[in-house]
Amino acid sequence: MGLYWEPCPGGARLLRLLGDTPCPAVPGTIEGLPVAELGPYCFADRPVRPGARRTGDDTHEITGNFVEEVTLPDTMRVLDSAAFYNCRRLRRVTLGPGVEGFGSDLFTNCRQLQTFRLRAAADAPTGLKKLLGAVSADITVELDGAQLFYPEYSEFLDENTPAHIFNHSIEGEGYRMRQCFTPGGAVDYAAFDASFAQACVGESEDKLCRLALGRLVQPFGLGDDARADYELYLTAHPEAAFRRAIDDRDEAALRLLVGLSLPTADAAVYCARVGWSAGAAVLLGRAKRAKKTYDFDDL
């Protein structure tokens, strides 16, 4: 692997990675300096700025539609503007808890982006709130011990033409969920779970099932009332719940649904249709009711 870089306050700024993998891991150091920043347009299909230093022999640039997953080191502190601009096949970004600076247009046109993975404890303070502010589309966040799904939201500016006044409107419960953090920067799970009731008003069955399954499979900070709400929703929407678990190839979610005693016949048919043999085995291996045994006290 090769790269272009330049010095910056606190270490090195990565300007471009070179190599043949669409799922690169950014090194933690460059020539002894910690990699502290991801430079502007680092993974975008744009020319590298003149004067950049270069290391390594690779010549193929890891940019644009070639990029699928990126893993950033714990030394990273800043993601500069448009770092992933036009990476239309980017699905996943993994980073440490110390990233605090985020530029604008970070994920513009990253239409396949699905997951942020943070190497951080579920209750640790991170820069996640700012990171989520860079993505208004559906996004799943994985922490150590927790999985949270944030639905899409939309922002509009409506002009009152005669007065030339603009009204700022936000639609979608995903925006409210993105505000559920403590003053210190950790996820506020109670506030996040409390937003589920309002989400049930406007979000789709599929998105609500994704949200409920994520919280129940990894129930960090999940209270009894919130657990009951999530389980009740899944019980009332078994077809959508099973379809989501099967589409994600999520055995843990599938076992959870089986444990809720939801009907599995249609789910087994769907599993067979999409060719997921491991999921079908979970459904077909569902525990049967124990046979009633009798003794003389029953007579």
Give the class from helix and strand content and strand pairing. alpha/beta
CA gyration radius, whole angstroms:
23 Å
Beta strand count? 14
Fraction of helical residues: 25-40%
Query: Total number of helical segments?
Result: 10
Largest sheet: 7 strands, mixed
Beta strand %:
15-25%
Average pLDDT over all residues: 92
Low-confidence stretches: 287-291
Please write the string of helix (H) and strand (E) elements.
Answer: EEEEEEEEEEHEEEEHHHHHHHHH
From the N-terminal CA to the C-terminal CA, the straight-line distance is: 78 Å
Q: Could you say which overall geometry the principal axes of the C-alpha atoms support?
A: globular
List keywords for this structure.
299 residues; alpha/beta; globular
Précis, in short:
By secondary structure, this protein is of the alpha/beta class. 29% of the residues lie in helices and 23% in strands. Strands 1, 2, 3, 4, 5, 7 and 9 form a 7-stranded mixed sheet that branches. It has a 5-stranded mixed sheet with strand order 6-8-10-11-12.
Question: Mind sketching the topology for me?
Answer:
Elements: E1 2-8, E2 11-18, E3 29-30, E4 33-38, E5 53-55, E6 69-71, E7 78-79, E8 92-95, E9 101-102, E10 115-121, H1 128-132, E11 139-144, E12 146-150, E13 154-160, E14 165-171, H2 173-177, H3 189-194, H4 196-202, H5 205-217, H6 224-236, H7 238-247, H8 251-259, H9 265-274, H10 277-284
Parallel strand pairs: 2-4, 4-7, 6-8, 7-9, 8-10, 10-11
Antiparallel strand pairs: 1-2, 1-5, 3-4, 11-12, 13-14
Helix pairs in contact: 5-6, 5-7, 7-8, 7-9, 8-10, 9-10
